[in-house]
Amino acid sequence: MSQENLIKMQCTVCKRVNYWTTKNKKLVERKLEFKKFCKWCKKRTSHKEGKK
């Protein structure tokens, strides 16, 4: 994965960075949000795009 497209996915409950993903910044203007498993919360929570 190239470094300029790398994005942190941060848990909205505990605020920890659990996942890294990529995004095409030319086509997607809004922030990404996924429901993913957080190993600290021990449940599926909403993960939003974090700051670099």
Automatic annotation (TrEMBL):
Protein family membership: Belongs to the bacterial ribosomal protein bL33 family.
SUPFAM superfamilies: Zn-binding ribosomal proteins
Organism: Candidatus Azambacteria bacterium RIFCSPLOWO2_02_FULL_44_14
Pfam families: Ribosomal_L33 (PF00471)
Keywords: Ribonucleoprotein, Ribosomal protein
GO function terms (MF aspect): structural constituent of ribosome
Any single GO BP term: translation
Keyword Ribonucleoprotein in record: yes
Top-rank taxon: Bacteria
The protein's name in its UniProt record: Large ribosomal subunit protein bL33
A cellular-component GO term for this protein: cytoplasm
